[in-house]
Amino acid sequence: MKFIDEATITVRSGKGGNGCVAFRRERFIPKGGPSGGDGGKGGDLILRGSSKLLTLYDFRLKRVYEAKNGEQGQGRDKYGKGADDLIIDLPLGTLVYEVNREDGSEKLIADLTKEGLKVTVCKGGDGGRGNIHFKSSTNQTPRQAEEGFPGEEKRIRLQLKIIADVGLLGLPNAGKSTFISKISAAKPKIAAYPFTTLVPNLGVVDDNMGNKLVIADIPGLIEGASEGLGLGHRFLKHVERTRFLVHILSAEDLSLEDPLDGFNMLDEELRIFDEEMAAKTQLRVINKIDLLSEEDLESIKAKAEEAGQKIYFISALHSDGVQELLNDMWDRFKAMNQEEADEQDEQQDSDVTGS
């Protein structure tokens, strides 16, 4: 299955059922009167966030979604049955834009960031009134009823931005896929050629307390990615939803004269694409240290210390240093959770005081 992160579809809610014109015909009731019931309401069209989906691929195959119409009213005061709502599940992190058919402009109408979050994008039409509503002192036998009201139709663009706690960044062949395969159950494609990762991979790491750390392996970025070069520019937007970044640099790409300069290029690509993204907390990692001589490794560590930078040295292939990095990722994750909880408590206290 291909990874698809954008799709445009047409959605329609159901039309309301028509009201009914009918009259009572029971024996022993000489003056029957109107008995036409109302039509049923058309079904709403609802979007719902679901963690079971990871791509918008299905929405490239089917482009039109329609809820059912309400049933027509009947005689003997019987109302038509309302149609069931049509609920469409979308991956968590999907942004929903309404597209103006005239000028092509877009308006954000939903951001599905939580499991089970529902948003009604098209309301079903109300059913028309039957002739029982039109009886009056001057019109004992009304022969009019309302038609059902139309539903709504919208053209919407779906854009998926992956929700993860950690985003892995690095040049092609930095070893991100190997790292994520070592710490999670994810089985990404791994090979010794550029752009092995063509789609974001998600890995989930559990601790012994039941916490889950979701890690997104973003396809390799190259210089000029923010301007559309390479593959990574398509996926830069997925980094926006991560809470912090792990930037992995391969020992193969190091300059021994200035080994930390390799981090600067991707930092600049992030800054050009989005200043807020570039400001995210970043853990810096040098991978494939098994390819370095002991002398070169010590020299790089010394230069990192001189620059005052915290660098994690690992060999994902041989698992060297991986557990220490993972432990620090957990510490960062839990610290951010605590900071957010404290901020929520302060906000609640402020709301109570203000009221």
Q: Order of strands in the sheet with the most strands?
A: 10-11-9-12-13-14
Biggest sheet architecture: 6 strands, mixed
Order of helices and strands: EEHEEEEEEEHEEHEHHEHEH
As residue ranges, the low-confidence spans are 190-198, 222-226
How much of the residues is beta strand, in percent?
Answer: 15-25%
How is this structure best described in words?
The protein has 355 residues and is of the alpha/beta class. The protein is built from seven helices and 14 strands. It has a six-stranded mixed sheet, with helices on both faces. A five-stranded mixed sheet has the order 3-1-8-5-6, with no helix packed on it. The chain starts with 5 loop residues before the first strand and ends with a helix.
Provide the fold topology.
Blueprint (H helix, E strand, L loop, with lengths): L5 E7 L32 E6 L7 H4 L2 E3 L19 E6 L2 E6 L6 E7 L5 E5 L30 E8 L5 E5 L5 H8 L17 E6 L5 E6 L18 H4 L4 E7 L11 H12 L1 H4 L3 E6 L6 H13 L4 E3 L8 H33 L1
Parallel strand pairs: 1-3, 2-4, 9-11, 9-12, 12-13, 13-14
Antiparallel strand pairs: 1-8, 2-7, 5-6, 5-8, 10-11
